[in-house]
Protein backbone atom coordinates (compact mmCIF):
# COMPACT_ATOMS: atom_id res chain seq x y z
CA UNK A 1 0.00 0.00 0.00
CA UNK A 2 1.83 3.09 -1.19
CA UNK A 3 1.11 6.61 -2.29
CA UNK A 4 3.30 9.08 -4.13
CA UNK A 5 3.93 12.20 -2.06
CA UNK A 6 6.27 15.11 -2.67
CA UNK A 7 7.61 15.76 0.80
CA UNK A 8 9.19 19.21 0.55
CA UNK A 9 11.65 21.34 -1.34
CA UNK A 10 14.85 19.98 0.20
CA UNK A 11 13.90 16.37 -0.32
CA UNK A 12 11.95 16.75 -3.53
CA UNK A 13 14.60 15.94 -6.12
CA UNK A 14 12.08 13.26 -7.00
CA UNK A 15 8.77 11.90 -5.84
CA UNK A 16 8.93 9.28 -3.13
CA UNK A 17 6.80 6.18 -2.73
CA UNK A 18 5.61 6.69 0.84
CA UNK A 19 4.49 3.54 2.63
CA UNK A 20 1.28 5.14 3.80
CA UNK A 21 0.00 2.01 5.54
CA UNK A 22 3.11 1.77 7.71
CA UNK A 23 2.97 5.47 8.64
CA UNK A 24 -0.70 5.14 9.58
CA UNK A 25 -0.01 2.04 11.69
CA UNK A 26 2.82 3.39 13.83
CA UNK A 27 1.24 6.84 14.15
CA UNK A 28 -2.08 5.37 15.25
CA UNK A 29 -0.51 3.14 17.88
CA UNK A 30 1.61 5.99 19.26
CA UNK A 31 -1.39 8.31 19.26
CA UNK A 32 -3.24 5.91 21.58
CA UNK A 33 -1.39 7.72 24.34
CA UNK A 34 -3.83 10.52 23.58
CA UNK A 35 -6.75 8.18 24.25
CA UNK A 36 -5.47 7.60 27.77
CA UNK A 37 -4.77 11.32 28.13
CA UNK A 38 -8.39 12.18 27.29
CA UNK A 39 -9.82 9.30 29.30
CA UNK A 40 -7.79 10.11 32.40
CA UNK A 41 -8.57 13.84 32.36
CA UNK A 42 -12.32 13.48 31.81
CA UNK A 43 -13.19 10.33 33.77
CA UNK A 44 -13.32 12.50 36.88
CA UNK A 45 -16.24 14.52 35.47
CA UNK A 46 -18.73 11.81 36.41
CA UNK A 47 -17.23 11.13 39.81
CA UNK A 48 -17.07 14.64 41.28
CA UNK A 49 -20.27 14.63 43.32
CA UNK A 50 -19.68 11.08 44.56
CA UNK A 51 -16.10 11.33 45.83
CA UNK A 52 -16.76 14.87 47.13
CA UNK A 53 -19.57 13.46 49.28
CA UNK A 54 -17.50 10.42 50.25
CA UNK A 55 -14.53 12.49 51.44
CA UNK A 56 -16.75 15.44 52.55
CA UNK A 57 -14.88 18.02 50.51
CA UNK A 58 -15.33 21.79 50.32
CA UNK A 59 -15.47 23.65 46.99
CA UNK A 60 -11.75 24.44 47.25
CA UNK A 61 -10.89 20.80 48.05
CA UNK A 62 -13.09 19.61 45.19
CA UNK A 63 -11.29 21.94 42.79
CA UNK A 64 -7.97 20.65 44.11
CA UNK A 65 -9.10 17.04 43.60
CA UNK A 66 -10.06 17.75 39.99
CA UNK A 67 -7.14 20.02 39.16
CA UNK A 68 -4.24 18.26 40.93
CA UNK A 69 -3.75 15.95 37.94
CA UNK A 70 -2.51 18.97 36.03
CA UNK A 71 0.30 19.59 38.53
CA UNK A 72 1.30 15.97 38.06
CA UNK A 73 1.14 16.55 34.32
CA UNK A 74 3.40 19.59 34.71
CA UNK A 75 5.94 17.37 36.48
CA UNK A 76 5.52 14.78 33.72
CA UNK A 77 6.18 17.44 31.09
CA UNK A 78 9.40 18.55 32.84
CA UNK A 79 10.86 15.08 33.31
CA UNK A 80 9.38 13.86 30.03
CA UNK A 81 11.52 16.24 28.01
CA UNK A 82 14.69 14.84 29.55
CA UNK A 83 13.53 11.23 29.47
CA UNK A 84 12.49 11.52 25.82
CA UNK A 85 16.09 12.46 25.01
CA UNK A 86 17.74 9.82 27.19
CA UNK A 87 15.40 6.81 27.00
CA UNK A 88 13.97 7.58 23.57
CA UNK A 89 10.38 8.21 22.52
CA UNK A 90 9.27 4.58 22.45
CA UNK A 91 10.51 3.52 25.89
CA UNK A 92 9.01 6.61 27.51
CA UNK A 93 5.62 5.81 25.95
CA UNK A 94 5.80 2.28 27.39
CA UNK A 95 6.59 3.69 30.82
CA UNK A 96 3.57 6.00 30.54
CA UNK A 97 1.31 3.09 29.65
CA UNK A 98 2.33 1.21 32.81
CA UNK A 99 1.73 4.31 34.95
CA UNK A 100 -1.72 4.81 33.42
CA UNK A 101 -2.69 1.24 34.33
CA UNK A 102 -1.44 1.42 37.92
CA UNK A 103 -2.78 4.83 38.81
CA UNK A 104 -6.29 4.24 37.46
CA UNK A 105 -6.88 1.47 39.97
CA UNK A 106 -4.95 3.33 42.67
CA UNK A 107 -7.13 6.43 42.39
CA UNK A 108 -10.33 4.41 42.31
CA UNK A 109 -9.62 2.41 45.44
CA UNK A 110 -7.81 5.04 47.51
CA UNK A 111 -8.85 4.80 51.15
CA UNK A 112 -8.23 8.43 52.03
CA UNK A 113 -8.31 11.80 50.32
CA UNK A 114 -4.50 12.35 50.50
CA UNK A 115 -3.98 8.93 48.88
CA UNK A 116 -6.58 9.80 46.24
CA UNK A 117 -4.67 13.00 45.43
CA UNK A 118 -1.35 11.13 45.35
CA UNK A 119 -2.52 8.61 42.73
CA UNK A 120 -4.33 11.33 40.78
CA UNK A 121 -1.13 13.39 40.59
CA UNK A 122 0.94 10.32 39.66
CA UNK A 123 -1.56 9.65 36.90
CA UNK A 124 -0.95 13.23 35.82
CA UNK A 125 2.77 12.49 35.47
CA UNK A 126 1.85 9.89 32.85
CA UNK A 127 -0.54 12.33 31.16
CA UNK A 128 2.09 15.09 30.99
CA UNK A 129 4.85 12.87 29.65
CA UNK A 130 2.55 11.24 27.09
CA UNK A 131 1.18 14.62 25.97
CA UNK A 132 4.76 15.70 25.28
CA UNK A 133 6.17 12.62 23.58
CA UNK A 134 3.17 11.32 21.57
CA UNK A 135 2.80 14.27 19.16
CA UNK A 136 6.58 14.70 19.10
CA UNK A 137 7.04 11.10 18.00
CA UNK A 138 4.28 11.22 15.37
CA UNK A 139 5.67 14.48 13.93
CA UNK A 140 9.18 13.04 13.76
CA UNK A 141 8.12 9.82 12.04
CA UNK A 142 5.69 11.34 9.49
CA UNK A 143 6.57 12.72 6.02
CA UNK A 144 5.91 16.48 5.85
CA UNK A 145 2.94 16.17 3.47
CA UNK A 146 1.19 13.85 5.95
CA UNK A 147 2.40 15.34 9.22
CA UNK A 148 -0.57 17.59 10.01
CA UNK A 149 -3.03 14.79 9.42
CA UNK A 150 -0.99 12.27 11.39
CA UNK A 151 -0.52 14.50 14.43
CA UNK A 152 -4.24 15.30 14.26
CA UNK A 153 -4.82 11.61 14.90
CA UNK A 154 -3.34 12.27 18.32
CA UNK A 155 -6.13 14.75 19.03
CA UNK A 156 -8.62 12.25 17.60
CA UNK A 157 -7.34 9.71 20.11
CA UNK A 158 -7.83 12.27 22.88
CA UNK A 159 -11.45 12.85 21.91
CA UNK A 160 -12.06 9.10 21.63
CA UNK A 161 -10.69 8.81 25.16
CA UNK A 162 -13.03 11.59 26.29
CA UNK A 163 -16.00 9.88 24.65
CA UNK A 164 -15.11 6.53 26.21
CA UNK A 165 -14.76 8.19 29.62
CA UNK A 166 -18.22 9.76 29.39
CA UNK A 167 -19.68 6.46 28.18
CA UNK A 168 -17.93 4.51 30.94
CA UNK A 169 -19.25 6.93 33.57
CA UNK A 170 -22.78 6.60 32.23
CA UNK A 171 -22.66 2.77 32.16
CA UNK A 172 -21.19 2.57 35.67
CA UNK A 173 -23.45 5.24 37.17
CA UNK A 174 -25.90 2.79 38.78
CA UNK A 175 -23.40 0.21 40.07
CA UNK A 176 -23.83 1.19 43.72
CA UNK A 177 -21.98 3.31 46.24
CA UNK A 178 -18.62 2.34 44.75
CA UNK A 179 -19.60 3.50 41.25
CA UNK A 180 -16.97 6.27 41.25
CA UNK A 181 -14.28 3.75 42.20
CA UNK A 182 -15.13 1.56 39.21
CA UNK A 183 -15.17 4.62 36.95
CA UNK A 184 -11.56 5.39 37.80
CA UNK A 185 -10.49 1.74 37.63
CA UNK A 186 -11.85 1.34 34.09
CA UNK A 187 -8.79 3.28 32.90
CA UNK A 188 -6.51 0.28 33.40
CA UNK A 189 -7.91 -1.76 30.47
CA UNK A 190 -6.98 0.60 27.59
CA UNK A 191 -3.63 1.27 29.27
CA UNK A 192 -2.58 -2.35 28.90
CA UNK A 193 -3.76 -2.39 25.28
CA UNK A 194 -1.57 0.65 24.59
CA UNK A 195 1.44 -0.98 26.27
CA UNK A 196 1.33 -4.12 24.12
CA UNK A 197 0.66 -2.14 20.95
CA UNK A 198 3.92 -0.21 21.43
CA UNK A 199 5.92 -3.38 20.74
CA UNK A 200 4.98 -2.86 17.06
CA UNK A 201 6.28 0.74 16.96
CA UNK A 202 9.73 1.83 15.71
CA UNK A 203 11.90 4.39 17.46
CA UNK A 204 11.96 7.95 16.10
CA UNK A 205 14.58 8.27 13.31
CA UNK A 206 15.33 11.84 14.39
CA UNK A 207 16.09 10.68 17.94
CA UNK A 208 18.28 7.87 16.58
CA UNK A 209 20.29 10.26 14.39
CA UNK A 210 20.69 12.60 17.36
CA UNK A 211 22.26 9.67 19.22
CA UNK A 212 24.55 8.77 16.31
CA UNK A 213 22.58 5.64 15.40
CA UNK A 214 22.23 6.59 11.74
CA UNK A 215 22.08 3.05 10.38
CA UNK A 216 18.99 2.22 12.44
CA UNK A 217 17.40 5.53 11.47
CA UNK A 218 18.07 4.92 7.78
CA UNK A 219 16.36 1.54 7.97
CA UNK A 220 13.22 3.09 9.45
CA UNK A 221 13.23 5.98 6.96
CA UNK A 222 13.69 3.53 4.08
CA UNK A 223 10.70 1.55 5.28
CA UNK A 224 8.68 4.78 5.30
CA UNK A 225 9.68 6.11 1.86
CA UNK A 226 12.38 4.02 0.22
CA UNK A 227 16.15 4.40 -0.08
CA UNK A 228 16.16 7.79 -1.84
CA UNK A 229 13.76 9.26 0.71
CA UNK A 230 15.90 7.84 3.54
CA UNK A 231 19.09 9.43 2.18
CA UNK A 232 17.48 12.84 1.63
CA UNK A 233 15.75 12.94 5.02
CA UNK A 234 18.81 11.61 6.85
CA UNK A 235 21.01 14.32 5.31
CA UNK A 236 18.59 17.09 6.37
CA UNK A 237 18.21 15.75 9.90
CA UNK A 238 21.95 15.27 10.37
CA UNK A 239 22.61 18.82 9.18
CA UNK A 240 20.08 20.27 11.62
CA UNK A 241 21.89 18.59 14.51
CA UNK A 242 25.32 19.55 13.23
CA UNK A 243 24.56 23.27 12.96
CA UNK A 244 24.40 23.79 16.71
CA UNK A 245 24.08 21.76 19.88
CA UNK A 246 21.83 22.96 22.71
CA UNK A 247 21.96 20.80 25.79
CA UNK A 248 20.81 23.11 28.58
CA UNK A 249 17.35 24.45 29.36
CA UNK A 250 18.87 27.92 29.86
CA UNK A 251 19.79 27.95 26.17
CA UNK A 252 16.08 28.13 25.31
CA UNK A 253 16.18 31.77 26.43
CA UNK A 254 18.85 32.74 23.92
CA UNK A 255 17.95 35.34 21.32
CA UNK A 256 17.96 33.02 18.30
CA UNK A 257 15.36 30.59 19.70
CA UNK A 258 13.46 32.36 22.49
CA UNK A 259 10.90 33.93 20.15
CA UNK A 260 10.05 30.44 18.88
CA UNK A 261 9.73 29.07 22.41
CA UNK A 262 7.53 32.03 23.38
CA UNK A 263 5.12 31.37 20.50
CA UNK A 264 4.88 27.74 21.60
CA UNK A 265 4.17 28.71 25.22
CA UNK A 266 1.36 31.08 24.23
CA UNK A 267 -0.20 28.46 21.94
CA UNK A 268 -0.03 25.92 24.77
CA UNK A 269 -1.47 28.20 27.48
CA UNK A 270 -4.30 29.58 25.38
CA UNK A 271 -5.32 26.10 24.24
CA UNK A 272 -6.22 25.37 27.87
CA UNK A 273 -7.54 28.77 28.97
CA UNK A 274 -10.26 29.33 26.38
CA UNK A 275 -12.89 27.43 28.39
CA UNK A 276 -13.04 23.83 27.21
CA UNK A 277 -11.67 22.50 30.51
CA UNK A 278 -14.60 23.96 32.39
CA UNK A 279 -16.93 22.13 30.01
CA UNK A 280 -15.11 18.79 29.86
CA UNK A 281 -14.31 18.45 33.56
CA UNK A 282 -17.61 19.71 34.97
CA UNK A 283 -20.11 18.93 32.20
CA UNK A 284 -22.61 16.96 34.34
CA UNK A 285 -22.49 19.61 37.07
CA UNK A 286 -23.07 22.40 34.53
CA UNK A 287 -26.07 20.63 33.05
CA UNK A 288 -27.54 19.97 36.49
CA UNK A 289 -27.20 23.69 37.26
CA UNK A 290 -29.11 24.34 34.04
CA UNK A 291 -32.00 22.29 35.45
CA UNK A 292 -31.37 18.81 34.04
CA UNK A 293 -31.80 15.59 36.05
CA UNK A 294 -28.68 13.58 37.00
CA UNK A 295 -29.22 10.75 34.48
CA UNK A 296 -30.00 13.29 31.77
CA UNK A 297 -26.90 15.34 32.64
CA UNK A 298 -24.69 12.25 32.26
CA UNK A 299 -26.34 11.45 28.93
CA UNK A 300 -25.75 15.01 27.70
CA UNK A 301 -22.07 14.51 28.57
CA UNK A 302 -21.95 11.58 26.17
CA UNK A 303 -23.34 13.88 23.49
CA UNK A 304 -20.42 16.23 24.20
CA UNK A 305 -18.06 13.32 23.60
CA UNK A 306 -19.80 12.42 20.32
CA UNK A 307 -19.68 16.02 19.06
CA UNK A 308 -16.03 16.23 20.06
CA UNK A 309 -15.31 13.03 18.11
CA UNK A 310 -17.22 13.99 14.95
CA UNK A 311 -15.85 17.50 14.57
CA UNK A 312 -12.23 16.42 15.05
CA UNK A 313 -12.50 14.86 11.59
CA UNK A 314 -13.01 18.34 10.14
CA UNK A 315 -9.57 19.32 11.39
CA UNK A 316 -8.04 16.08 10.11
CA UNK A 317 -9.53 16.70 6.67
CA UNK A 318 -8.56 20.36 6.43
CA UNK A 319 -5.39 20.97 8.42
CA UNK A 320 -2.96 20.15 5.61
CA UNK A 321 -5.00 22.22 3.11
CA UNK A 322 -6.26 25.19 5.13
CA UNK A 323 -3.14 25.42 7.25
CA UNK A 324 -2.45 25.74 10.97
CA UNK A 325 -2.69 29.53 11.29
CA UNK A 326 -6.04 29.87 9.54
CA UNK A 327 -7.67 27.20 11.73
CA UNK A 328 -6.29 28.80 14.89
CA UNK A 329 -7.63 32.19 13.81
CA UNK A 330 -11.10 30.96 12.88
CA UNK A 331 -11.30 28.80 15.99
CA UNK A 332 -10.28 31.45 18.51
CA UNK A 333 -12.65 34.05 17.08
CA UNK A 334 -15.65 31.69 16.92
CA UNK A 335 -14.94 30.55 20.48
CA UNK A 336 -14.95 34.20 21.54
CA UNK A 337 -18.48 34.58 20.11
CA UNK A 338 -19.69 31.31 21.66
CA UNK A 339 -18.25 32.04 25.11
CA UNK A 340 -20.08 35.40 25.04
CA UNK A 341 -23.28 33.52 24.19
CA UNK A 342 -22.74 31.12 27.12
CA UNK A 343 -22.07 34.03 29.46
CA UNK A 344 -25.30 35.67 28.30
CA UNK A 345 -27.29 32.44 28.67
CA UNK A 346 -26.21 32.01 32.29
CA UNK A 347 -26.73 35.72 33.04
CA UNK A 348 -30.28 35.70 31.66
CA UNK A 349 -30.94 32.22 33.08
CA UNK A 350 -32.12 30.93 29.73
CA UNK A 351 -33.68 27.43 29.55
CA UNK A 352 -31.28 24.48 29.73
CA UNK A 353 -31.66 23.70 26.03
CA UNK A 354 -29.87 26.96 25.16
CA UNK A 355 -27.01 26.11 27.48
CA UNK A 356 -26.76 22.69 25.82
CA UNK A 357 -26.73 24.24 22.33
CA UNK A 358 -23.99 26.74 23.20
CA UNK A 359 -21.93 24.10 25.00
CA UNK A 360 -22.13 21.70 22.05
CA UNK A 361 -21.24 24.53 19.64
CA UNK A 362 -18.22 25.42 21.78
CA UNK A 363 -17.02 21.81 21.79
CA UNK A 364 -17.59 21.49 18.04
CA UNK A 365 -15.56 24.63 17.28
CA UNK A 366 -12.75 23.65 19.63
CA UNK A 367 -12.62 20.10 18.24
CA UNK A 368 -12.44 21.29 14.64
CA UNK A 369 -9.77 23.92 15.27
CA UNK A 370 -7.75 24.61 18.43
CA UNK A 371 -7.85 21.08 19.83
CA UNK A 372 -5.98 19.27 17.03
CA UNK A 373 -4.02 22.25 15.68
CA UNK A 374 -2.40 22.99 19.06
CA UNK A 375 -0.63 19.64 19.13
CA UNK A 376 0.38 19.89 15.47
CA UNK A 377 1.85 23.36 16.00
CA UNK A 378 3.71 22.40 19.17
CA UNK A 379 5.12 19.25 17.60
CA UNK A 380 6.60 21.02 14.58
CA UNK A 381 7.67 24.60 15.38
CA UNK A 382 10.68 23.78 17.58
CA UNK A 383 14.11 23.07 16.00
CA UNK A 384 15.43 19.49 16.21
CA UNK A 385 18.25 20.46 18.55
CA UNK A 386 15.92 21.91 21.21
CA UNK A 387 12.69 20.02 20.53
CA UNK A 388 12.70 17.92 23.70
CA UNK A 389 13.41 20.78 26.12
CA UNK A 390 11.29 23.35 24.26
CA UNK A 391 8.29 21.05 24.04
CA UNK A 392 8.74 20.24 27.71
CA UNK A 393 8.63 23.95 28.58
CA UNK A 394 5.54 24.53 26.42
CA UNK A 395 3.68 21.55 27.86
CA UNK A 396 4.72 22.61 31.37
CA UNK A 397 3.02 25.94 30.72
CA UNK A 398 0.05 24.07 29.24
CA UNK A 399 -0.48 21.99 32.38
CA UNK A 400 -0.04 24.91 34.74
CA UNK A 401 -2.73 26.77 32.77
CA UNK A 402 -4.88 23.62 32.81
CA UNK A 403 -4.47 23.35 36.58
CA UNK A 404 -5.62 26.89 37.26
CA UNK A 405 -8.54 26.82 34.84
CA UNK A 406 -9.76 23.45 36.15
CA UNK A 407 -9.18 23.83 39.88
CA UNK A 408 -10.45 27.41 40.11
CA UNK A 409 -13.70 26.75 38.26
CA UNK A 410 -15.72 25.70 41.37
CA UNK A 411 -14.41 28.72 43.28
CA UNK A 412 -15.09 31.16 40.43
CA UNK A 413 -18.54 29.68 39.97
CA UNK A 414 -19.31 30.17 43.67
CA UNK A 415 -18.01 33.72 44.03
CA UNK A 416 -18.46 35.21 40.53
CA UNK A 417 -21.06 33.00 38.86
CA UNK A 418 -21.04 31.16 35.57
CA UNK A 419 -21.77 34.27 33.52
CA UNK A 420 -18.63 36.11 34.67
CA UNK A 421 -16.55 32.94 34.37
CA UNK A 422 -17.39 32.46 30.70
CA UNK A 423 -16.98 36.18 30.03
CA UNK A 424 -13.37 35.82 31.17
CA UNK A 425 -12.95 32.86 28.80
CA UNK A 426 -14.37 35.00 25.98
CA UNK A 427 -11.79 37.73 26.56
CA UNK A 428 -8.99 35.16 26.54
CA UNK A 429 -10.27 33.84 23.20
CA UNK A 430 -10.20 37.34 21.73
CA UNK A 431 -6.66 37.99 22.96
CA UNK A 432 -5.53 34.66 21.47
CA UNK A 433 -7.10 35.52 18.11
CA UNK A 434 -5.08 38.76 17.98
CA UNK A 435 -1.87 36.93 18.93
CA UNK A 436 -2.30 34.27 16.23
CA UNK A 437 -3.07 36.93 13.65
CA UNK A 438 0.13 38.87 14.35
CA UNK A 439 2.71 36.36 15.65
CA UNK A 440 2.05 32.78 14.54
CA UNK A 441 3.55 31.78 11.14
CA UNK A 442 2.06 29.28 8.68
CA UNK A 443 3.95 25.95 8.59
CA UNK A 444 1.82 23.65 6.42
CA UNK A 445 3.56 21.50 3.83
CA UNK A 446 7.09 22.12 5.09
CA UNK A 447 9.57 19.68 6.58
CA UNK A 448 10.58 20.13 10.20
CA UNK A 449 13.97 21.36 9.06
CA UNK A 450 12.40 23.93 6.68
CA UNK A 451 10.21 25.21 9.51
CA UNK A 452 13.32 25.56 11.66
CA UNK A 453 15.02 27.73 9.03
CA UNK A 454 11.84 29.80 8.51
CA UNK A 455 11.42 30.63 12.18
CA UNK A 456 15.13 31.15 12.79
CA UNK A 457 15.07 34.04 10.30
CA UNK A 458 12.32 35.90 12.20
From TrEMBL:
Which residues span the membrane? 21-51, 63-80, 92-111, 117-139, 151-168, 180-201, 257-277, 297-318, 330-348, 354-378, 390-409, 415-435
What Pfam families does the record point to?
Sugar_tr
Question: Keyword annotations for this protein?
Answer: Membrane, Transmembrane, Transmembrane helix, Transport
Which superkingdom, per the lineage? Bacteria
Q: How does it sit in the membrane?
A: Multi-pass membrane protein
Q: InterPro entries this protein is in?
A: MFS_dom (IPR020846), MFS_sugar_transport-like (IPR005828), MFS_Sugar_Transporter (IPR050820), MFS_trans_sf (IPR036259), Sugar/inositol_transpt (IPR003663), Sugar_transporter_CS (IPR005829)
Question: Major facilitator superfamily (MFS) profile domain spans which residues?
Answer: 26-444
User: Subcellular location, in the record's words?
Assistant: Membrane
Q: Which family does it belong to?
A: Belongs to the major facilitator superfamily. Sugar transporter (TC 2.A.1.1) family.
* Cross-referenced PANTHER family: D-XYLOSE-PROTON SYMPORTER-LIKE 2
Full protein name: Sugar porter (SP) family MFS transporter
Species name: Dyadobacter arcticus
Amino acid sequence: MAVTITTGRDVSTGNYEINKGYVYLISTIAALGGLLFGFDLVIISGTVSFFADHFRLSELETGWAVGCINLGAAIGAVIGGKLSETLGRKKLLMLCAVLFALTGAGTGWAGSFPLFVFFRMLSGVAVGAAALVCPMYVAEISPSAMRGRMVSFYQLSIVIGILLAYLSNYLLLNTGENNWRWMFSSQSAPSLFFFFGLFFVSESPRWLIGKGRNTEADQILARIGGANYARAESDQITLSFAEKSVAKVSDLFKKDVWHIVFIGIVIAVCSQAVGQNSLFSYAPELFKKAGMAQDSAFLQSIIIGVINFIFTFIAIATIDRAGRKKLLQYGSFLLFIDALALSTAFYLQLPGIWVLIFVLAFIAIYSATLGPVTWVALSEIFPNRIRGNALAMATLALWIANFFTTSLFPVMNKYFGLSATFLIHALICLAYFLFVRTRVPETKGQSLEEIERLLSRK
